[in-house]
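Onboarding guide, step 5: your first structure request.
Type a short instruction followed by the sequence, for example:

Predict the 3D structure of this protein.
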Amino acid sequence: MTLKHRIKSWLWMAALGVAVAASPAAAFEDPEDLPEGPGREEAFYNCVACHSFQVVVRQGMSRGMWDDTMTLMVERHGMWELEEEERELIIDYLSTHFPASSETGTRRGWTNPFAP
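The system replies with structure tokens like these:
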């Protein structure tokens, strides 16, 4: 690896470290840590069975994107199939409380620190 590539790699790692350090450190260890609403417990327990709920909170997706993501998790990652009623309840909850940033005017997820 050339010196140029090492420096570039180091800068990306440093930027990622800054982005992670600047992110909120909220812990989602219990459903009561989440906004109230129908589907809160179902979303929490189905999601944390495989990963932290912080992963979910940082996504911010539209209803269609949440639906597609659940399909992807079933097909590629071995997530169990949910009953249609429970799936809709969870998607409604997630799209209401963790919508796409364009719907709220806020930014979610990782931001490229080098972007204009």
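Each response can be followed by summary notes, for example: DSSP finds six helices and no strands in the chain.
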